[in-house]
Amino acid sequence: MSASDVLHPDGSDYDAFLFAELGEDKTGAAVTVLSALARLDLEPWTEARELAGLGREDAKVRLTTHFEAITDIPALALASEGRAAKLISLLPKRAPLRVSKSLEAGTNNSPKISISWTMMALVGVAVLTWVYYLAQAG
């Protein structure tokens, strides 16, 4: 797994949306969609993926509701619904599915095993116990 996959678990499909600037907060710090969602204790990539999975109108309403909860960004108080509509257009048309690279390449040809690891461990302990018993008896 690359560092990019760790930092951006859902890839860069949401970067245009998450890194879009919303303005400055009352202290003068620049605020992006990512930092605004984080201020609301939302995981930004998860929220972006969920918004992308909604219809455009439902996503706009949800994002507008989030923006209305943020009171320290003056620019959001002005036309938050219009801002939300523009930002929603930056999301991918449909939430992308992340498929592991081994599945994409078709290299996952391992046989399906129905026995669980726990069962195998129990059988191993039983065999070791039997061997120990035989060694002590003999």
Description:
The radius of gyration is 25 Å and the shape is elongated. The longest helix has 21 residues. It has a two-stranded antiparallel ribbon with strand order 1-2. The mean pLDDT is 76. It starts with a helix and ends with a helix. It has 138 residues and is mainly alpha-helical. The chain contains nine helices and two strands. Helix 5 crosses helix 7.
Rounded mean pLDDT score: 76
Strand order of the largest sheet: 1-2
- N-C termini distance: 52 Å
Structural shape? elongated
Helix content range of the residues, please? 55-70%
The total strand number stands at 2
Structural class: mainly alpha
Largest sheet: 2 strands, antiparallel
Low-confidence stretches: none
**What value does the Rg take, in angstroms?**
25 Å
User: Please, how many helices?
Assistant: 9
How would you name the oligomeric state of the polypeptide chains in this document?
single chain
Following the backbone from N to C, one meets helices and strands in this order, namely: HHEEHHHHHHH
Features:
57% helix, 138 residues, mainly alpha, two-stranded antiparallel ribbon, 2 strands, elongated
